[in-house]
């Protein structure tokens, strides 16, 4: 078996945090998202020979990480820099020479799915499909590509991309949607025009379906896209709950973590190496603290993810926030999200920053937030720069 992971997205909806970190490298429960996806794939497919990572934006960051990680894994890892965006099908064609010798999985680098790769492979072999597409049922099909098939049959008859009208949503709501993991045969390359921007979902799979060679693999359970700020937070917390359940622990804490007197931890939380928390704090539920984070006294944190080297001073109250690496706050800061703070932001003492309804507060890297800048953001779409 081989695999290709599409990791070329710009992560525009998660800016400004993705200005300095490519989306596939954003931490999920303190591990890069790509690390999480690859580890799960390797656990379930021990015969995996080769992993290709198709990248475009900040390719050097991903390449540097993978070269280091390559030393610890048994399969080959190749980082393919597209130079220009080629779409999901074009990225696959670009990597043909590395993949055409065997069946291969194709995964999105910003989606985590909990299902059995072994079961998907068994069905793929049994049906002799050219393409097997993971499928899941969702309450609202309007955001996804719908896979139409007969009841009790895995053969896909039709693809319908993002039904929008009330009539179409009602018509297609009884079918599962494309969950973004594919198991493909090398014959798929015959359907893709080289050196062109091609969508495998829109331009390739419908042709495979016409020949009755596309099948769905339906599953239920965890399936999380990390495209939006609220999805990134929710994804961290869902996986945190799953990992603590798997480990049989209330929380995930590195042995070097230091907790102050009278501090209360509300499970589940995840604290990385050298995290220090002061006295009389209430931390959790659903808090992820990255390596070398420091939290002062009398601090309340909940439903938030903090990257490395954040420093939270005394008497802070922070809810529903994604904090980039190196963020520092003064004392008596109240921050109520949803909010994304870029790297090395500083928040002055006694600042209160609260997201308005249906808005996410976004703060550019290296910005100092003052009471005056918060006032300005109220009339500027909650964007502080």
Keywords:
single chain; 385 residues; alpha/beta; Spore Coat Polysaccharide Biosynthesis Protein SpsA, Chain A; UDP N-Acetylglucosamine Acyltransferase, domain 1; 2 domains; twelve-stranded parallel sheet; 9 helices; 32 strands; elongated
Describe this structure in words.
This protein folds into 2 domains: 2-227, Spore Coat Polysaccharide Biosynthesis Protein SpsA, Chain A (Alpha-Beta Complex), CATH 3.90.550.10; 251-384, 3 Solenoid (UDP N-Acetylglucosamine Acyltransferase, domain 1). The longest helix is centred in the middle third of the chain and has 19 residues, at 229-247. Helices cover 24% and strands 30% of the residues. The strands form 7 sheets. Strands 14, 16, 17, 19, 20, 22, 23, 25, 27, 29, 30 and 32 form a 12-stranded parallel beta sheet that branches. By secondary structure, it is an alpha/beta fold. Strand 4 (50-55), helix 2 (59-70) and strand 5 form a beta-alpha-beta unit. The model has no long low-confidence stretch (mean pLDDT 87). The protein is built from 9 helices and 32 strands.
Cα radius of gyration in angstroms: 22 Å
How far is it from the N-terminal to the C-terminal residue, by CA? 47 Å
Q: What fraction of the residues are assigned to beta strands by DSSP?
A: 25-35%
CATH topology of the largest domain: Spore Coat Polysaccharide Biosynthesis Protein SpsA, Chain A
Mean pLDDT equals 87
């Amino acid at each position: 078996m081989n695999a290709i992971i599409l990791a070329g997205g710009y992560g525009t909806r998660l800016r400004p945090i993705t200005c300095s970190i490519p989306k596939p490298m954003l931490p999920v429960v303190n591990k890069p998202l790509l690390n999480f996806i690859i580890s799960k794939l390797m656990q379930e497919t021990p015969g995996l020979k080769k992993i290709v990572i198709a990248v475009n934006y900040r390719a050097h960051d991903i390449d540097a990480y993978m070269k280091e990680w390559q030393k610890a894994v048994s399969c080959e890892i190749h980082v393919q820099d597209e130079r220009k965006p080629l779409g999901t099908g074009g990225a696959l064609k670009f990597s043909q020479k590395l993949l055409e010798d065997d069946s291969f999985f194709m995964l999105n680098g910003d989606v985590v799915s909990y299902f059995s790769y072994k079961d998907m492979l068994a069905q793929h072999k049994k049906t002799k499909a050219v393409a097997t597409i993971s499928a899941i049922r969702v309450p609202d099909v309007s955001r996804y590509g719908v896979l139409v098939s007969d009841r009790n049959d895995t053969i896909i008859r039709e693809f319908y991309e993002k039904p929008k009208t009330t009539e179409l949503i009602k018509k297609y709501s009884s079918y599962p949607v494309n969950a973004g993991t594919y198991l493909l045969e090398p014959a798929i390359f015959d359907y893709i025009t080289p050196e062109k921007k091609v969508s495998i979902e829109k331009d390739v799979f419908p042709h495979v379906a016409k020949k009755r060679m596309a099948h769905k693999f339906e599953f239920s359970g965890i399936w999380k896209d990390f495209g939006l700020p609220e999805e990134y937070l929710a994804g961290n917390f869902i996986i945190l709950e799953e990992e603590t359940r798997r480990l049989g622990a209330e929380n995930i804490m590195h042995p070097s973590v230091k907790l102050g007197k009278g501090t209360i931890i509300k499970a589940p939380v995840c604290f990385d190496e050298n995290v220090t928390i002061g006295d009389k704090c209430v931390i959790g539920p659903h808090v992820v603290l990255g390596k070398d984070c420091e939290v002062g006294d009398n601090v309340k944190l909940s439903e938030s993810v903090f990257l490395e080297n954040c420093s939270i001073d005394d008497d802070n109250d922070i809810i529903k926030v994604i904090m980039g690496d190196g963020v520092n706050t003064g004392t008596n800061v109240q921050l109520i999200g949803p909010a994304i703070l870029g790297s090395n932001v500083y928040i002055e003492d006694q600042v209160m920053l609260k997201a308005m309804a249906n808005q996410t507060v976004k703060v550019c890297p290296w910005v100092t937030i003052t009471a005056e800048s918060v006032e300005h953001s109220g009339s500027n779409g909650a964007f502080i720069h």
